[in-house]
Amino acid sequence: MKPKVAFICVHNSCRSQMAEALGKLLAADVFNSYSAGTETKPQINQDAVRIIKDLYNVDMNKTQKSKLIQDLPEIDIVIKMGCNVVCPFLPSKYEEDWGLEDPTGKSDEEFIKVARTIEERVRDLAKRIKNKDIYLKETRD
């Protein structure tokens, strides 16, 4: 069974959404991607949507929406996007913080930089899961 990875931040409108989209695009064979926050926004950050569409030809408006952490299934791996305030807590078997700057309200260059960093880290995460560098205790149903 593929592990479930949740990308979380407070609003679930920008970085975590980009990570969910890139996880689905680049690592669907290794893990299932989710994203969520402790608050939702009526829509995903439209600059993030545009940049992900330009760079990866994925339309997040069609496939994703802002979600709350309590709407997620049981998660194996939690990736915190980097919250300057308190990051939401979600129980999991493994957790790491990517400490990414929120590009909201900044230039396209900033969004592209964040998207490329997320792409790199998603690929790295997939590799580490594949190589079992991230230890997930098997649970029996």
From TrEMBL:
UniProt xrefs under Gene3D superfamilies: 3.40.50.2300
KW Aminoacyl-tRNA synthetase (keyword) present: no
Phosphotyrosine protein phosphatase I domain: residues covered: 3-128
Keyword entries, A-Z: Arsenical resistance
Protein name from the UniProt record: ArsC family transcriptional regulator
Coiled-coil regions listed in the entry: none
Organism: Clostridium isatidis
InterPro entries, alphabetized: Ptyr_pPase, Ptyr_pPase_sf
Segment forming the signal sequence: none
